[in-house]
Amino acid sequence: QVQLQESGPGLVKPSQTLSLTCNVSGDSISSGGHYWNWIRQHPEKGLEWIGNMYYSGGANTDYNPSLKSRITISVDTSKNQFSLRVTSVTAADTAIYYCTRDGGYWGQGTLVTVSS
Amino acid sequence: DIVLTQTPLSSPVTLGQPASISCRSSQSLVHSDGNTYLNWLHQRPGQPPRLLIYQISNRFSGVPDRFSGSGAETDFTLKISRVEAEDVGVYYCMQATQFPTFGQGTKLEIK
Q: Lower CB count within 10 Å: N or C terminus of chain A?
């Protein structure tokens, strides 16, 4: 069964970089055929797609245009995990961050709070 | 960006009765490959969303057959034939024809 688990610091200071990792089990990212996404949910609010990665001999990424200048999604196939970096964070980046496979399989989510 | 508008935003339903949620898109969701990437998600409090329906009408693995999806182009509907207590929560439509966007959510609650 496919399982995803997010990890990373729960508190980040304003202007710093948020880094999260999604560990995947039950599937191999390097096998290809799937979109590996990061999605976030602001407190008591709706869902926002951050970006995704499609692995086909290498990582191909696509980002939400509104976040593109601050986002990097990368992959480590040796560890079967993919990562998210968000630079220059502000309070508006406070959210639950989810990693998903194609939208069908979701991690439990990790709350990231941006505060000094 | 494609904007998805859901109605109603809140839906009180009696157990055992049907429920219906509408999702309207600001533009056609037919992709250049011919598919329509309109999905429905359900989120219970404190839980991540889970996929119910993909590509308009296909139930995801393990989803009960009381859930069904229909529609085309810009207008889509999720129907629950007989609401059960475990169906409470927020329902989202989501499109992936262009970069993914979500509806604002419909809260289903029991009367």
A: N
- B1: which chain A residues are within 8 Å (Cβ-Cβ)? 65
Mutation target vs B (from A47, A52, A96; most B CBs, 10 A cutoff):
A47
With bands split at pLDDT 50, 70 and 90, how would you rate the model's confidence at B62?
very high
pLDDT value of residue A44: 80
Contacts of B71-76 with C-beta under 8 Å, sequence gap 24+, read B71/B23, B71/B38, B72/B36, B73/B25, B73/B28, B73/B29, B73/B30, B73/B36, B74/B24, B74/B25, B74/B26, B74/B27, B74/B28, B74/B29, B75/B22, B75/B23, B75/B24, B75/B25, B76/B22, B76/B23, B76/B24, B76/B25, B76/B29, B76/B38
Cross-chain residue pair B102–A48, CB shorter than 8 Å: yes
Q: What's the pLDDT tens digit per position in A48-88?
A: 999 999 999 888 999 999 999 999 999 999 999 999 999 99
Is A47 close to B92, i.e. CB distance below 8 A? yes
